[in-house]
Amino acid sequence: MSEAQHYLDSLPNPEAVEIGHLVDKLLLDAYRMNASDIHIEPWNSSILVRLRLNGLLQELVSFPLDYMEKLSGRLKVMANLVSYETDRPQEGHAQVGQEMGGVELRMSFFPVLCGGEFGSDVKGEKIVIRIFDPNRRSFQLEDLGFEPDTLDSFQRLLTRPSGMILLTGPTGCGKTTAIYAAMTYLGNLYGSKYSISAVEDPVEYKLPMVSQAQINSAKEFTYPIALRSLMRQDPQVIMVGEIRDPETASIAVQAGLTGHLVISTIHSGSTAGVFARMINMNIEPFLLASSVIGIMGLRLIRKNCVYCAQPYQADSSLLSLTTESFQEEASFRAGDGCEHCAMTGFEGQISVTELLETSEPMREAIVKKMPSRKLQEIAVQNGMRTLWESGLQRVKNGDTPFEEMIRSVPYDPL
Length: 414
Hints:
Layout: H1 3-10, H2 19-32, E1 37-43, E2 46-53, E3 56-64, H3 68-78, E4 90-95, E5 104-114, E6 122-132, H4 148-158, E7 163-168, H5 175-190, E8 196-200, E9 211-214, H6 223-230, E10 237-240, H7 246-257, E11 261-266, H8 273-279, H9 285-291, E12 292-304, E13 309-311, H10 316-319, H11 324-329, E14 333-335, E15 346-357, H12 360-367, H13 372-381, H14 387-396, H15 402-408
Parallel strand pairs: 7-11, 7-12, 8-9, 8-10, 10-11
Antiparallel strand pairs: 1-2, 1-6, 2-3, 4-5, 5-6, 12-15, 13-14
Helix pairs in contact: 1-2, 6-7, 7-9, 9-12, 12-13
């Protein structure tokens, strides 16, 4: 039973609650369960609290809707926000005590309607708290769980003197962790001999030997403005938190062409599709072909709990997607659930990667504006292992169930 639930059960009546004490219990539960986010949301006649554990939401506790105003007010005081305003979004952050390792909380408040009746005008707020714990986050490339050959290739790309390296994938797939690990690797490799600068929105963790700037749109400090100024700072490595618009893309590409190593993230439906995405941002294909040296597609999947993982039989419909030799060699395993994994069967996450290196045939195809599917075929012919193949290898090794892998990794038999 969670600390929050135990506290609620101990109350003689719901009105006896001490909101500050309840908030402390919720935060302590999230910290002990290694949650990345806390979702507090009014549903019908109650408030539901869920934790994001290993990428998925899991219900923690629920309590009366009457707590909404006091709960929101308490959290806003912690985040130095306007506690009495509930009809507009607000964002803030707070630091907690050493009983939770001094982690940082990023809070987001969003006005919603609640009350359970259709057309209800009862006002409430959805609250999401992101937990940043540097003590539990490793920024070492070796600790990210990359496949050995992918790790070697990625490190080789990072030692190139110039060009652009892009990371792509959906929200929460580990792009930020990987990009921080890349900068940590370069800092450890070159020390004070290299100038490494980063522009982010926001800065999530402070890294040693890296000059990090945070975007502030209210002060007109945007990615394009920051990058133009940064180019006069004599950096050798530039990290751009995310390429969102044509202007940022253009400056980043030019930086990669003029003797800088640029590392950034971009949202795209596929790894090979990054080129089409940037061409749609009005970047000339020949510039992309010359500047982009590698793109890594990332996914995170939940890892079997080592304490309760057992052999199991994968679903026949999934096995039909594989070969007979794969089925004979695979070690299918799944967690049953135990106290070590909060009865989920999973403990932690592992990465599934797809690293596209820009070869000469790939450059020629980019200049010709070939479709993303054709670019992927060329990458595979030049040795790229697809996300699907990497995911199957994780299943084959018994790292995760087949059902978990296919939930996050797109089926692609190419």
